[in-house]
Predict the structure.
Amino acid sequence: MRARRARILALVLLAATVAAVFAQSGPPVARAFAAPMDRVFAVAESALKSLGWTIDEKDGKAGWIRTDSRGVDFKDFGVYGQGTRHKLRLTFTAAGEGQTAVAVERELYKEERILWMTDRKPLQASDRAVELAVLDEIGRLVPAVAAAPGPAIQAPPAAGPERSYRVTYRVKGSAGSARLIYRNAQGGTEEATVRLPWEASFEAKSGSPLYVSALNQGAAGTVSCEILLEEESRATSTSTGAGALAECRNTAERR
């Protein structure tokens, strides 16, 4: 009876650790590809293996892959190990006719192991380089869905004081919510899941790259993104269906 209680307690602690890791992993990075799900799924398996990841579990019908954990700066001394490890989870969603959206989520954690006892503390990833590397590797064999092109932009004057522009991102549609990835005023990348419609404005220096994408989180409906510069529309994109991705990009420059 005592041994059974100990096993139950160990399972409860393990479940709590896994839940904490997922809570700290941060939002996934997503991209849509111009191929059906079975094709993208097969390419993703090959991409993971070429990048050195070992697949732990997968389900092609449900549309997900989970990798084994691997060390970032982990040192293993046999009976003792300590350092940082991470693992990946990929989710595949149909994004319209002949298109598939892939979301990559990374779990990062600090691990200390003594014999069979393992202690894990979730960490917040500071960048999305690992996730983007997986999407880029998939994109070598399957083309990404192109964003709607924005109008031609004239080069700025060679001289003169640096100026800034009022930038507005707008995301709307019949979908209830969307996962956003966008560049902020400092040039960094922010991610959030929001209810639609959504809008954000800020001042951007001349020449700053502008970007916003919206991944449909609903079972149906549309998502649309738009970039406005000084209240003038510079880029728009609309996608329809579960997992559909709308993507807009431009530059903070006058015409």
Summary: Residues 222 and 240 are 4 Å apart (CA to CA). Helices lie at 2-24, 37-50, 129-139. The chain has three helices and 16 strands. The radius of gyration is 21 Å.
